[in-house]
Write a structure and sequence with these properties.
The protein is an alpha/beta fold. Helix content is 30%, strand content 21%. The strands form 2 sheets. It has an 8-stranded mixed sheet with strand order 3-4-2-1-5-6-8-7, sandwiched between helices. The longest helix is centred in the last third of the chain and has 16 residues. The two termini are 36 Å apart. The chain binds NADPH dihydro-nicotinamide-adenine-dinucleotide phosphate and N-acetyl-L-glutamyl 5-phosphate. This is N-acetyl-gamma-glutamyl-phosphate reductase.
Length: 342
Amino acid sequence: MNAALVGVTGYSGMVLYQLLQQHPEVAAIRLFGHPDNSQVQPLVEAVPNFIGDQTLIEPLDPAVIMAECDVIFFATSAGVTTELATPFIAANFPVIDLSGDYRLLDPTTFTKWYHKPAPAVSALQQSHYGLAEFANAAGHSYIANPGCYATATLLGLAPLVQQHLIDPTSIIVDAKSGTSGAGKKLATSTHFSQTDENLQLYKVNRHQHIPEIMQQLKIWDDNVPAIQFTTTLLPIVRGIMDTIYAKSEATAEQLQAAFTATYADQPFVRVLPAGQLPTLKEVVGTNFCDLGISYNPVTHTVLVVSVIDNLLKGAAGQAIQNFNQYFGFAATAGLQLAALMP
Ligand SMILES: NC(=O)C1=CN([C@@H]2O[C@H](COP(=O)(O)OP(=O)(O)OC[C@H]3O[C@@H](n4cnc5c(N)ncnc54)[C@H](OP(=O)(O)O)[C@@H]3O)[C@@H](O)[C@H]2O)C=CC1
Ligand SMILES: CC(=O)N[C@@H](CCC(=O)OP(=O)(O)O)C(=O)O
């Protein structure tokens, strides 16, 4: 199996490259950069952390990739796959796209939330929303990997919404992320001086993951009208913690049982025992999503805490889950990772 990767110089691309290097089914990895840059560049020049790695970054050339590789991963900025993926889609060549370009099936919704033209409808119709625990990528050659916040939120809400255990009008998601979620480009809001010892809310009521989450929730229960979704930047590098609230008349035991049953056969979702809530350090460095559930009978409110590593379960790790599903490899192949300790 030969894999092509575009975007190794970005945060999720460099993590994906590390995962592909230790994947048991991957024989060779070819790295590709911008199509308009005709220069071949040594990887270590672009990303000095890869000390001793002799691999070159080549100019993107779809014909070369389709002739010499078996799959292409795009870990590229928003808008890039809309421009560059067309020849692969036309040829049904397997694409795993980490960006948001092909996640929203309705082009009008895409333009409203991303403020740019959507990919062609014919191409969108070929895309598969790869929330790995609830959709199997086998047979789908264009896989749109979910967003990081969307992954943490949907995994935290799935049992409640699918089993109608909450008031569908009452969902509130307080989502928080480390700075690597914003990618490598420096901005005033992600500058060390601004993030260190600080908390910043951003994109309030206009975050691009709101329509992506709603698209999936509506499939599970069309009675969910909207969600209140708020994002906060944390002064850490990796990790997402979602604190999710909803009104419920179920008992604590029913709620815990719903989560345990939903994820019983899922190797990457760990439902903590009743009374325990997860922390970021147990998932950072891994592909796990850890979920903790608590019920307040006084306010009739269920609290779900969902934690992931945004660059793994929220990006590169889930991309490998989709890769494994597409090619029929073991679900955990290439993903046996240990959390960073202490
Ligand atoms: N960071 C995260 O936690 C998550 C990110 N995502 C999504 O994954 C994608 C990558 O994110 P992230 O790694 O954070 O982003 P970065 O900004 O860190 O990296 C973007 C990468 O895309 C490359 N790139 C940009 N334009 C082109 C182009 N025209 N042709 C080829 N390569 C190009 C960049 O190359 P160069 O540096 O040479 O310009 C760089 O390697 C984004 O779409 C993001 O929304 C999804 C889930 C989580
Ligand atoms: C901290 C931070 O800025 N996080 C990013 C997460 C983006 C992401 O997951 O990517 P997509 O654009 O592919 O959905 C944000 O909130 O926009």
